[in-house]
Design goal:
The chain is α/β, with parallel strands linked by helices. It has helices at residues 18-26, 29-40, 46-55, 61-69, 77-86, 99-108, 147-154, 171-174, 184-193, 203-218, and strands at 3-8, 91-98, 115-123, 129-132, 160-165, 179-182, 198-199. It has a single domain (3-16, 73-124, 131-218), classed as HAD superfamily/HAD-like (Rossmann fold). α1 (18-26) packs across α2, α4 (61-69) crosses α6 (99-108) and α5 packs parallel to α10 (203-218). Bound molecules: magnesium ion and zinc ion.
Length: 219
């Protein structure tokens, strides 16, 4: 059994929703939540939401470096990555957030060799932000970076796709991934919509369940 593993970043690899924190810290808190709500209600397209957030936020590279250094990841994630590497299962970080903070946090934790598929944000020394959406095309249109598209495109015939997430931005991957691990808002959403999923709390649990799955597969 060959697995291909897709992990959400905010609230999944990172303990906090760093996207929320970055833009409520360096942007306008009330505005952030208002725009996120509109996006969740389908009133605002993902790219528009990000463009508006970026326009009202200011952060310099060094401010973002300092901020990223304070953000913890799930302490069981590095061992999970090692487990996947030892079995040659590719691991992707897929995010509808921004590479600017994701790459800094991964690097800080010695995980900068992971494949990251996310939106792009340029952080200039003047604090002005510029956002780009390299994976928007062929997505669902509502997401700036549709995770369902990545699971579809990356998974090879015969492989089993594994998706691990926690929130609203993961919902496009649900119908596509072979096995979904869900917590928090994503778990509530799965239960509400009757989507099959495996509840989890951390990557150690995900690893255990995958090990069992692989053992059963060999029997
Ligand atoms: Mg998340
Ligand atoms: Zn989508």
């Amino acid at each position: 059994m060959k697995l291909r593993v897709f992990c959400d970043f905010d609230g999944t690899v990172a303990q906090n929703d760093v996207g929320n924190l970055v833009f409520t810290t360096f942007g306008d808190k009330d505005h952030w939540w208002k725009l996120v709500k509109e996006w969740e209600q389908g009133k605002l397209e993902g790219r528009e939401m990000w463009r508006k957030q970026a326009a009202i936020s200011r952060m310099t590279p060094s401010q973002l470096n300092d901020f990223a250094a304070t953000q913890a990841i799930d302490p069981t994630f590095p061992a999970f990555v090692e487990f996947c590497k030892s079995r040659r299962f590719p691991v992707y970080v897929v995010s509808d957030g921004m590479d600017a903070y994701i790459s800094r946090i991964l690097k800080h934790n010695g995980l900068d060799d992971l494949i990251v598929l996310s939106n792009h944000m340029d952080v200039s020394s003047t604090g002005i932000l510029q956002v780009e959406f390299p994976y928007y095309e062929n997505g669902c249109g509502a997401c700036a970076n549709c995770k369902g598209l990545h699971v579809t495109k990356e998974t090879k015939p015969g492989e089993t796709s594994i998706y691990i997430g926690d929130g609203y931005s993961d919902k496009c991957a649900l119908a596509i991934a072979d096995i979904t691990f869900a917590k928090d808002d994503l778990l509530s959403y799965c239960r509400e919509k009757d989507f099959p999923c495996r509840p989890y709390r951390n990557f150690e649990q995900v690893q255990k369940e995958l090990e069992e799955l692989l053992n059963d597969d060999q029997k």
